[in-house]
Design brief:
single chain; 333 residues; alpha/beta; Nucleotidyltransferase, domain 5; five-stranded mixed beta sheet; 21% strand; EC 3.6.1.40; Ppx/GppA phosphatase family
Amino acid sequence: MARFAAIDCGTNSLRLLICEYKNGVTKEILRLMEIVRLGQGVDATGELDPAAIERTREVLKKYVELMRQERVTDVRMVATSATRDASNKDEFFRMTAQLLGTIRPGAVAEVITGEEEATLSFIGAVADLADEPGPYCVIDLGGGSTEFVVGNADGEILGSHSAQMGCVRMTERIMRSDPPTDIELEIARDHVAERIEQTQLIVPIAQAKTFVGCAGTFTTIAALALGLEEYDPKAIHDSQLRFDALRVLTNQLIGITSAERRMNPVVHPGRADVIAGGAVVVQGILDMIENQTGITSMVISEKDILDGIIADLVADSEAAAAIRAAAITGEVM
């Protein structure tokens, strides 16, 4: 038996997944998310705000304590858009090394490429899609970027791309009014259209038969679409949402203030001020899917890059065990 932890540090949130691997089966132990807004102001200053680093440190410290309690033996932490863009990222990485090193010596957050992020998200998101036709297109809408990856159930990747559009980036760069003005919306939609046009040149969107939305913007919108009274991951996971309903709902989110959004119990207070930016990205994605394929619904997944990281850790552990077994056999021989 072994226990592994995966941490995803995005522009907006810091998330933790702890799993147990035993007899070929991976079991989820704990999954947590807290809004830390590490990428706050990065677009404007080019640096991580010291207050944002401190918020992240406090949450990561709590996560490390939970890992100790759950007897985690290995951990991998990935850092995405916010740290890729920051000039003072070394300060952030020193902090993660200090904390993660207590779980596994030498552990430190890694900056991964958008393409690697997309691949890990794909591995995690398609794990429960045996009944859905492939190829799949997994769309991971984050705070600073949106990853698109098309692939098959066996893990073969047909194309991937990281588009520089996310809920925080759209809000800070363009949609600064609350609610956004008509001019801001026009600029935002043009920005999304340009990024999607570029994506279509790189990723074979038209080949996909099933589209999967994951991460906080998609799952929160799914909770609203399902009429949940509280956020319920089990109800959200593997739900099917129709585009016509999603367009009505995203227009409603865009048209109200962050204070009004915050009143809904399924909207995390730290997401209320940026989800309108995410909603504009969602609308552009829906248009792209429908125009490219004629498909008018998508699957929402609660599994994503964290589950992909755990799968990698399990595979590495199995490979190491096989090498040790071979070495022992060789010694005996």
